[in-house]
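Exam revision sheet. Question 4 asks you to relate a sequence to its structure. Input first:
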Amino acid sequence: MTRTLSRRERFHAVTAGFLGWTMDAFDFFVVVFLVDALAERFGVPKKEIVWTMTATLAMRPVGAVLFGLLADRYGRRIPLMVNVLFFSTVEILCGFAPNYGTFLVLRALFGIGMGGEWGVGASLAMESAPRKWRGILSGILQSGYSIGYLLAAVAARFVLPALGWRAMFWVGGLPALLALYIRWHVPESEAWKQHRAPTMGAIGKTLRAFAPRLAYLVALMTMMMFLSHGTQDLYPDFLKLAHGIPAPTVAEVAMIYNVGAVLGAILFGHFSERVGRRYSMLAALGLSLAVMPFWAFGGSLAILAAAAFFMQMGVQGAWGIIPAHLNELSPDSTRGLVPGLAYQLGILFASPVNTIEYALRDRIGYGRALASFETATILILATLLLAGSEQKGKHFVEEYDFTETPQSTP
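Answer key, structure tokens:
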């Protein structure tokens, strides 16, 4: 008979996934605030630094496949610990990069670690979360991404002026301590124990049978990546160049809009338990679309900051539902692989987003480039959601739980 996890064990599992994604996001978004400093240090145009972000995003599927396969075959805990140690080490080495070529290779390697963390951490967290709390815990888990961005903004405001750009990456080595937390406190997934694949071949067979739905999930995640990275990565640069806002103030605005992102992920994640995953995501997208003109063309710092707050509330409101939605739609025996693979293949196809928006900026202006690209993204994304399906409340573990009652799935 399958053992039911205690509240403490569930808490530790969700916390591990949340902290891993928070620290991973911090390590990625550090570069967003260092575009000018790195371009000057390495003697390259700014577009070359933007390209390192593209390289990071493009390598994430490699990590999703590698660590996802290990998680489905050998369990969630050990692959997650190895992953955390890997990306933390690479982040520290970025702070020692002597030239642009070395830095580019290290950021590509970091992409492998970043790609592996989300799928394994999300499957562990969602498999450990009570079904009735899955929506809000999904939002809390995904809000780690925004909190990581927020922490990167805080570091850019205080660490960068005091200690320089290298220290920004050295701080990113702290996540290595998370491996110890996982080792001591996080239990193995009961869902994995019940549905573990006997061989790598069995995982491949299940994946082939799931191919049509996987293709849909990849398309969905591609548009979600266009939405998140297209509204986040270049926005600090946009505020500086298009509106002449100084770097310290830009970091403060980033702190503001990431607070909105965290609130959105949690609120819409909770909302999804009432109205379903897809309709909650559509509501979040509607919020982002409504504030788009103020976000891209606001005439004052106050308007831009407020619009950015609500923009990211909507963007990450939609994203807060993704961990639960992808895990519920995935086969039981490949839940370590499929959510992360769909997520990271989406980022592979969306990896040129920063380069595309940067090129559009030169043709139609920064504000129009961001607004037109993201408006089209939201409309396509809404169409995909309406055409899709969901399995809200799906059982991950076959057990009778006296604390829960069955619920119908829309």
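Marking note for examiners. Residues 134-163 form the longest helix (30 residues).
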